[in-house]
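Lab notebook, bench 4. The sequencing result for the construct came back, and we need a structural model before the next group meeting so we can plan mutations. Quick request posted to the team channel:

Model the 3D structure of this chain.
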Amino acid sequence: MCPIEKRLYMDHIDSKYKYSKLTGLIIGASFEIHNELGAGLPEKIYQRCLEIELHSKGLSLNREFTVDVHFKEMTVGKRRLDFVIEDKVVVELKARHYLHKTDFIQLKNYLKLSKKKIGLLINFGESSLNYRRCILTQNNLRD
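Done. Here's the predicted structure in token form:
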């Protein structure tokens, strides 16, 4: 790991958060992408770049991970999560001018559907990368 890469990774670690080392790597990789490409591209481009970056860091991931949506014990649909990293962290990407409240609601639902506790909402659409680390606790989302 080169010094710049290590700094980006270390800048986003906070031991009070579960999987902080992992989320720090993901956030650092996202900053690398945003620093090189900037804002204004479609979400799919950032998604492909993040997949490349995370693979280069040796992380296992599921891109466009599909989960079933159930209602009264019946499957009523499916949702695609942008990423599930190391089978621990759900990552939802956006490429918008700003994050909406509905983006957080979407991430909360994805955490519940995937039975994961930690999520990252990353927005590449602003002039500076915007991210939120989110924790699902007893069906409540906090960041």
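The helical segments are 3-10, 20-37, 43-56, 101-114.
Will bring this to the meeting.
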